[in-house]
Structure formats: C-alpha cells, structure tokens
C-alpha cells in the first residue's frame, strides 16, 4: 500500500524557518509599537455568529456574498470563520458591556479566512494585525491611529517605498450628494460598465470607484470627486486630519479614489501602498466607521482603525533582505556519558538565567561539535571528566576560535558579555 503524502489545504501554508521569523517579527513589532500609543490587545473568537459579518461587512459585499467560510454547526447555528476582525472587536465591545467606558484603544493579531483564489501574498488562511480606536470622533484619533501604523511600518524598516494615501468620504450629507453625482455619471455610461459595476450602480455606487476592471477604470478616471460636495463640518475634519498628520511627521499624498462602500464609513479612508508587491500593492488600510458598533447592537460610537496583512509585510521584509537571524544558542557538550548529569545541571542553570542553551541527545565530542557549528551556535561549553570534577567548563567561542576555562558559577555572567 502506498503511503499517503498529506499537504496543507489549498490556500494555506506552514510557517517554518525564515518565514516564521519574519511573520513573528511583524506581530512582535506591532504589539510593541501599538502599546506605546496606549492600545491594549484583545483576542476575539476565530469564528462568530454569521450575522456579525453580514451586518458588519454588508450583505452585498464580495466578502459576504462570495468569500466567507460559513457553515452550520452541530446545533444548527450559522457560524463563520472570521474574514476580518473589526466587526468582531466591535461586537466584543458591546458583548462585554464596555460602551460606557470610552474611548477604547484595541490592538489585535491573528488568522483570518476568505475563500478566494490564492496568489502571491494572498491566502485562504491569512493573518492580520489591526488597531481600532472606539468611541472617539475627533480627527486627532484618525491621525493618531494612522501615525501608529506608520510607526510600525517604519520600525520594520519598510517605510522606504511604502506610501500613505488618504482621502475623505465626508459626512452623510456630503456622501448623499456625492452618491447622486456618481449615479448620474455612471448611468450615462451604464452599457460600458462591467456586470458587477452595473449591479453596484443600483445598490452601492461608491464601490464602482474601487473596481479593478479595465472598462470601469476608464469611466472612474472621469468621475467626479467628493471634494466639491463636502459640508463645512466634513471639510473641517479633513483639514484637521491633514494638519495632524503633518505634526506627527507622517508623509502622505491625497488619493480621491480611495473609497469604502458601506454607509457607516465616513470621513477618513486611507491605505499604505507599495509597488514592490506587484498588483497586491496595499499593505495596510483603514478608515473611520462611525456606525459599526451600532450595527452590533450598541449605541452610536464613532470609531476609526486599520488592518494590515502580516504576509504582505513579511514579503516586503524578504524583498528588503530584512529576515531576522535565527537565535544563536549556547551548546553544552559532555565529553562522555559520565559527564552528562553535570552537563544537564549546567544547561538548566543557564536557561534559568535567561540564556538560550541546548544539548544534543547523542553523539561523541566530534559529532556534537559539528552539529553546534552547523546550527550556528555562538559558544560551545565542553565538560570532560576534569572539568566536571573541578566545576569548570571549557568555553569555546565558535566565531573567534578562542577557548577559555570558566567556573560554572560564573558562566552566565561571562556569556552575557
């Protein structure tokens, strides 16, 4: 009987070696920087009641209509693997009775799921980091959440070649006037629109602006922008955002074609984009969503946030040659089986002192040394019969090729140097 060779499901992958180290660096850096801005980390369930996403993303969105992993559980309830996490965070705010203690700054990291065609940097199980400011309507909140995202990108060493693009969606009155102008423009050219955009013209005309179809792009280029339709209040919010971004030293350019299709999005929309990943150019995106918490059963709660694809940021790190090095451990080597007990005590004392150390499970001195070099160990601690008796180890620097004798009690302090 031939042995079955199992592989990860299509659109998923294992994270090992260098890939995992890049992935881990993105999340670790985002956790550290977001904490500097006062964000606390939340973890919500990987699957939710389907209504969380149907309400949060809109029944007509591509994610809800085409890409969600939705299924009935054994109790007959409709549940969905989360395709994004903003809706889950807003649901958690309401479920945990936190709408009376606002604003809240929330950071999250974890896997998301979408059934779509796998391609470079896009998977059916992918990972996101995100930051949300819940309960603050001021443009300063928009600017601060963007500055946090920029700080993370900069700290990863990816700011060169990644550009922040911003736009305003205005307030409800601004959008109503803008939507009417878009409907008039696209209706005049309806027969030239793609099939998807013809449907959007009836239900969600702003989403035509975001179409990737070539026939739509030509029409979008001549479509009106929202700027002439902004109310006085919407214009003040837009002006303040740009002023705050300048104060935060966050470089940006305006892009009037960044839109969000759902009615509860307002004012700020933004994306960090790059040309280094081909067609998959957005690495972080977000905006203001002043009605989403209300969709989850909470009170009106102005909010703003972003999400970033960990895989895409990791791909940028790889292209920039920024893969973190594997940790270099200390290898403890007993010369013979007789010294193994002493070597194990030394090994565990180093770990207790916060020094990464390991000891091979088998092999003579020569083979253990070969393995230490192959694995990139920085130091080998050799313990033979004499060393075990005297309570010392031969410390061999595997980079410099030097060797010295160090008492067991002084090993941790010596290795920290």
Automatic annotation (TrEMBL):
GO terms for molecular function: histidine-tRNA ligase activity. InterPro entries: aa-tRNA-synth_II, aa-tRNA-synth_II/BPL/LPL, Anticodon-bd, Anticodon-bd_dom_sf, His-tRNA-ligase, HisRS-like_core, HisRS/HisZ, HisRS_anticodon. It is found in: Cytoplasm. Its EC number is 6.1.1.21. It catalyses: tRNA(His) + L-histidine + ATP = L-histidyl-tRNA(His) + AMP + diphosphate + H(+). The keyword Protein biosynthesis applies. Keywords: Aminoacyl-tRNA synthetase, ATP-binding, Cytoplasm, Ligase, Nucleotide-binding, Protein biosynthesis. Residues 1-334 form the Aminoacyl-transfer RNA synthetases class-II family profile domain. Pfam families: HGTP_anticodon, tRNA-synt_His. It is an enzyme of class 6 (ligase). Homodimer. Belongs to the class-II aminoacyl-tRNA synthetase family. NCBIfam families: hisS (TIGR00442). This is Histidine--tRNA ligase. It comes from Sediminicoccus rosea. The lineage of its organism: Bacteria, Pseudomonadati, Pseudomonadota, Alphaproteobacteria, Acetobacterales. The gene is hisS.
């Amino acid at each position: 009987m031939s042995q079955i060779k199992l592989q990860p499901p299509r659109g998923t992958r294992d994270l090992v070696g260098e890939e995992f180290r890049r992935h881990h660096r993105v999340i670790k850096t985002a956790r550290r920087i977001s904490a500097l801005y006062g964000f606390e980390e939340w973890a919500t369930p990987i699957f939710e009641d389907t209504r969380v996403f149907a309400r949060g993303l809109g029944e007509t969105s591509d994610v809800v209509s085409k890409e969600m992993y939705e299924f009935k559980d054994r109790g007959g309830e409709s549940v969905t693997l989360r395709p994004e996490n903003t809706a889950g965070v807003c649901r958690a705010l309401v479920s945990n009775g936190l709408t009376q203690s606002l604003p809240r700054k929330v950071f999250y990291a974890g896997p998301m799921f979408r059934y779509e065609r796998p391609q470079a940097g896009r998977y059916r199980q992918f990972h996101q980091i995100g930051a949300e400011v819940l309960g603050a309507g001021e443009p300063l909140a928009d600017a601060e959440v963007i500055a946090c995202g920029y700080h993370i990108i900069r700290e990863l060493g990816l700011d060169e070649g990644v550009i922040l693009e911003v736009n305003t969606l205005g307030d409800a009155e601004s959008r109503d006037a803008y939507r009417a102008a878009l409907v008039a423009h696209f209706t005049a050219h309806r027969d030239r629109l793609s099939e998807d955009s013809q449907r959007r013209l009836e239900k969600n005309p702003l989403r035509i602006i975001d179409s990737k179809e070539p026939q739509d792009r030509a029409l979008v280029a001549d479509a009106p922008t929202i700027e002439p339709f902004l109310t006085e209040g919407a214009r003040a919010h837009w002006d303040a955002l740009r002023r705050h971004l300048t104060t935060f030293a966050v470089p940006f350019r305006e892009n009037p074609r960044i839109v969000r299709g759902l009615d509860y999005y307002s004012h700020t929309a933004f994306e960090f984009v790059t040309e280094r990943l081909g067609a998959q150019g957005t690495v972080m995106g977000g905006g203001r969503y002043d009605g989403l918490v209300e969709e989850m059963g909470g009170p009106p709660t102005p909010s703003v946030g972003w999400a970033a694809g960990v895989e895409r940021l990791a791909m940028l790190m790889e292209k920039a040659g920024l893969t973190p090095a594997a940790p270099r451990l200390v290898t403890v080597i007993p010369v013979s089986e007789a010294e193994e007990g002493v070597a194990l005590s030394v090994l565990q004392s180093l770990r207790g002192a916060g020094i990464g150390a390991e000891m091979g499970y088998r092999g003579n001195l020569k083979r253990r040394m070969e393995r230490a070099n192959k694995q990139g160990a920085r130091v080998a601690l050799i313990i033979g019969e004499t060393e075990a008796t005297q309570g010392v180890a031969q410390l061999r620097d595997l980079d410099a090729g030097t060797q010295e004798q160090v008492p067991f009690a002084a090993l941790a302090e010596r290795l920290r140097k």
